[in-house]
Amino acid sequence: MKKRVSFKMFLKPGCENEYEKRHNEIWPELQALLKESGVSDYTIYWDRDTNILFAHQTISEGAGSQDLGTSEIVKKWWNHMADIMETNPDNSPISVPLKEVFHLE
């Protein structure tokens, strides 16, 4: 069964271009892991007024992207992104789950 999930993360000021650049160059092995884990339709938006990143993805039964922190490639990505995002002590991005209140298909 597929499920939609959304969350927000926090970009450091002045890092918008670098964030977008790094995602345009996302590592193939990270893309493969996400897809193998059932993550699809993954989109991230940036709110320029608040520097908040809004992420939305569809997941199969199992983990979403923010639940893959035991994977070495995810840990490496988190370390790669830590200088431009607000992070937890393990360098995982601080993320806040968002409650879906409306959906139209």
Topology:
Blueprint (H helix, E strand, L loop, with lengths): L2 E8 L5 H9 L3 H9 L2 E9 L4 E8 L12 H10 L14 E3 L7
Antiparallel strand pairs: 1-3, 1-4, 2-3
GO biological process, one term: rhamnose catabolic process
GO molecular function, one term: L-rhamnose mutarotase activity
Protein name: L-rhamnose mutarotase
Give a description of the structure:
One of its GO terms (cellular component) is cytoplasm. This is L-rhamnose mutarotase. The chain contains three helices and four strands, in the order E-H-H-E-E-H-E. The chain is α+β, with helices and mostly antiparallel strands and 105 residues long. It has a single domain (3-98), classed as 2-Layer Sandwich (Alpha-Beta Plaits), CATH 3.30.70.100. The two termini are 17 Å apart.
Low-confidence stretches: none
As for the number of domains, it is 1
Identify the CATH class.
Alpha Beta
**Category from helices, strands and their pairing:** alpha+beta
Give the CA-based shape: globular
Largest sheet: 4 strands, antiparallel
Secondary-structure element order, as H and E? EHHEEHE
Q: How large is the count of helical segments?
A: 3
First-last Cα distance: 17 Å
Radius of gyration: 14 Å
Instruction: Write out the strand line-up for the largest beta sheet, numbering strands in chain order.
Output: 2-3-1-4
Mean pLDDT: 92
- Supply the CATH architecture: 2-Layer Sandwich
Give a count of the beta strands, DSSP E runs of length 2 or more. 4
The third-level CATH topology is Alpha-Beta Plaits
Assess the beta-strand content as a share of residues. Answer: 25-35%
Helix content: 25-40%
